[in-house]
Amino acid sequence: MRVVLADDAVILREGLSRLLQEAGFDVVGQGGDADDLLELVERMQPDVAIVDIRMPPTHTDEGLRAAKTIRERWPTVGVLILSQHVNSRYALELLSTGSDGIGYLLKERVSDLEELTTSVNRVGAGGSVLDSAVVAELVGRPRQGDNPLEHLTEREREVLALIAEGRSNRAIAERLFVTEHTVEKHIKSIFGALRLPQSADDHRRVLAVVTYLNSQ
Amino acid sequence: MRARLALVGAIGLLACGGAVWLAAHHLPNRPTEPGPALELLVGISLLGCGIASWRARPENRIGPVMVLTAFAWFAAQLIEASAAWLNTIGLAVQSVWVIGLVFLLLAFPAGRLHGRLDRWLIVVGAAAALGLQLMAMLYGNRAGLRCPGCADNLLQFTHDNHKALAWLSLQRLIGAVLLVTVIVVMLRRWLLAGAAQRHAVAPVLVAGCATLAALTATVCLDLAGDPLGALPANVYFALMATVPVAVMFVFLQRRLARGMVAGLVVELGGASAAADLRQALARALGDPSLELAFWFPSEQCYVDLDGGMVALPEPGSGRGSTFIERDGQPIAALFHDPVLDQNTGLVQSVCAAASLALENERLQADLRARLIELQASRARLVEATDSERRRLERDLHDGTQQRLVSIAMSLGLLETRLPSDAPEARPLIRETREALTLALAELRELTHGINPPLLTERGLAAALDELCHRAALPTRLELALDQRLPAQIESAAYFMTSEALTNAAKHSHGSEIRVVATYADRSLTIEVTDDGIGGATTAGGSGLRGLADRVEALGGRFTVSSPPGRGTVMRAEIPCV
Predict the structure, then answer these.
(1) Do residues B237 and B243 lie in contact, with contact meaning Cβ atoms separated by under 8 Å?
(2) What is the pLDDT confidence band of residue A57, given thresholds at 50, 70 and 90?
């Protein structure tokens, strides 16, 4: 799988590059800012672009804006955003462009080679990845008024959080030490509580969850 | 003012001409009446000096009273007119001008009567001069005597020489007593006055007392049955002409320090601003160009009313300067017309009278300057804190956080390269990595608390939204804010909300919080309301005090309403200029 990197901190870029190569990815280009990144993507047409959210010149959300541009111009290129902050708002903004091939991870997650590999692969394959800390913030938000999430049981919330992370039913079942059938039952009742039409598609489910959260 | 005085002067001259003509054509059997020369002298003296004094001291009643006295003086000559009604008027007002003279002398120099005795003297004088005159007129024409060749007295209903003379004698008697009393009052007042005042009003006292003495002598002779004593009358008329001249002299010489200072003191009592004080001093010293500057001891310089530093005028630059001290310390300086340098007595008196007000004003000016500086320095402090927070967050992000992430990456790499025959190392590395992740999470929380990235990147509305979502209690946010505001205002509003939410979660025992942020009329209002137990206060060392300081440093207002049992409302209003 062909990957490009963009991060203004050389030390992190190099480290990440080595990790990715170690994990068997083909790092075809590295850049220090959003312009570099867009040029690399155009030239290399990678499977995944891994982008630091804060880059020069303003060190705010250049990475996020570059990611949106990539989504627009090269929809087949997956984008994995790395951030040092849990910022559910940015995650939602990113996902509102469509959840196919989108990821948002905290930077330190990349030190877990297994998690990094899984995430890059999932994004490259058109799936979505949402950092568990971001999901926790989204799902754990206290809400006012008529909150459908309040109708969920503790277990259903847990399942929803795992769905929002983009996990399959099987993965959820394994994680929760239950059968897949049980997970399906939970999901059904979650969708019922959230008044969402059912779908077998993992990504659709994430989008549904995220769209729901976003609309609040 | 000038046109009005010119009109008064013109009318006065006409009246004067008429009176002089009448005096020149008077009946030869009235030798005690002033002839045309004295008529002219006294009339012009009263009129001219009255107008001059009026102009010099428009706020002082002395000038107008002198002019009125002149008209009364002219009116008295109407007795020589051939028309009966003019003769009647002339007879009635014949002695009215004496009241004007007495008022003049009693009220000099301030233009006001000094007390009950003064008022009584005027009232009794008026009653004698006008009232008893009218009584006498019921029984006779011209001093109670038959007056051959005179025009008719329209008030006379019968001729009774005895009654007419009795009324007139009573008038003369009362008049004599009154005049002596006035002389005594004037002398006593003069003796009680301070040296400067004594010196200043001496010409008026001398002229006034001499005139009144001569008048008293005339009246007494009249009473003694010698109405034809022409000499004292003429002496009296001649002296009479000197009184207005003396008054004008004193006024124009501006030597009336005490009188003016008294006026100044009254004015200073009402002065509320430095500009008023400057005006009062300019009026008292008769110099509209007067400038006022206050001494600022910390800066060791004089500062004008606009707060600018003032250079002292060079000698010979056409400006005089007077420095005012209080207890040996300079407090202010006056820059004025150099003419005033010749009149140090007045300037010194004015300065002495004004020194308290000046000191007061100086302290206030000092205080104002300090308050402005204090406000500015508070705002600077807040700004410095804010930029320090941003810098700290940035440093942590670019430095420590990245280094830690990089270490975590290396550990991850190390893990993959471990030889498969070192199974005891693997869990150790994993543990280290997890500890590192935890440290990073804590660091993240810390930097978020120092300066939430969303606040800098997306502004207050987004940051408040995030803040409310992260709050420990269910929080409803109502936003009427769709623009970025200056960084320090966004910061203050954000941290105020943050602290208020934390407080509510910790202490309120409430179940719900409402946050309302509104931007309208160039002012940001944040209101955080909970439904808890209340009792929150900004007193003591609570975090609320810090919030209040921060909001107030930006020129805003922070209020806490927290009645026990009825929840807490914290409200900040910050002007955005």
Answers:
(1) no
(2) confident
Distance from CA of B525 to the nearest CA of A (A): 22
- Put simply, whether B531 touches A (Cβ < 8 Å) is no
Nearest by CB: A18 against B398, B413, B454: B413
Kindly indicate the confidence band of residue B575, based on its pLDDT and cuts at 50, 70 and 90.
Answer: very high
Gap from B439 CA to chain A (nearest CA, Å): 10
Rounded to the nearest angstrom, the minimum Cα separation between A131 and chain B is 13
The mean of the pLDDT values for chain B is: 82
Name residue B513's beta-bridge partners: B475, B530
**CA–CA distance from B442 to each of B113, B195, B324 (Å)?**
86, 85, 65
Identify whether residues B327 and B269 lie together within a single domain.
yes
> What is the phi/psi pair of residue A50, to 5°?
-100, 120
Which CATH class for the A140-214 domain? mainly alpha
How far apart, in Å, do the first and last CA atoms of chain B sit?
Answer: 47
ipTM over 0.85: no
Query: Do B293 and B425 sit in the same domain of this protein?
Result: no
3-state secondary structure of B260: helix
pLDDT digits (tens, 9 = 90+) for B152-197: 777 777 777 788 888 888 888 898 899 899 999 989 888 887 555 6
Average pLDDT over residues B524-548: 82
Residue in B closest to A137 by C-alpha: B470
- Which of B434, B450, B466 is the last residue in one of the domains? B450
Write out the residue limits of the CATH 1.10.10.10 domain(s) in chain A.
140-214
| Inter-chain touch A15–B409, beta carbons under 8 Å | yes
Instruction: State which residues form the domain around B499.
Output: 458-575
Bridge partners (DSSP) listed for residue A52: A82
Predicted structure pTM score: 0.54
Q: Do B456 and A87 touch (CB under 8 A)?
A: no
Q: State the best of A111, A113, A144 to mutate against chain B, taking most chain B CBs within 10 Å.
A: A111
Locate the chain B residue with the closest alpha carbon to A21.
Answer: B413
Residues of B in contact with A141 (CB under 8 A): 469-470
Nearest CA in chain B to A17: B409
Residue A188 binned pLDDT confidence (cut-offs 50, 70, 90): confident
- The structural domain count of chain B equals 4
Spatial CA neighbour of B324 closest among B304, B346, B350, B343: B350
Q: What is the pLDDT of residue A211?
A: 47
- Do residue B303 and residue B341 come from a single domain? yes
H/E element, A3? strand A2-6
- Tens of pLDDT, residue by residue over B363-389, are 887 788 788 888 888 888 888 888 888
Same domain flag for B464 and B511: yes
Inter-chain residue contact B473 with A142, CB threshold 8 Å: yes
> Per residue in A112-149, pLDDT tens?
888 889 899 989 988 888 887 877 776 655 444 455 66
How far separated are the first and last CA of chain A, in Å rounded? Answer: 37
Same domain, B367 and B411: no
**Architecture of the domain whose range is A2-131:** 3-Layer(aba) Sandwich (3.40)
- Residue B196 burial by Cβ neighbours in a 10 Å radius (0-12, 13-18, 19+): middle
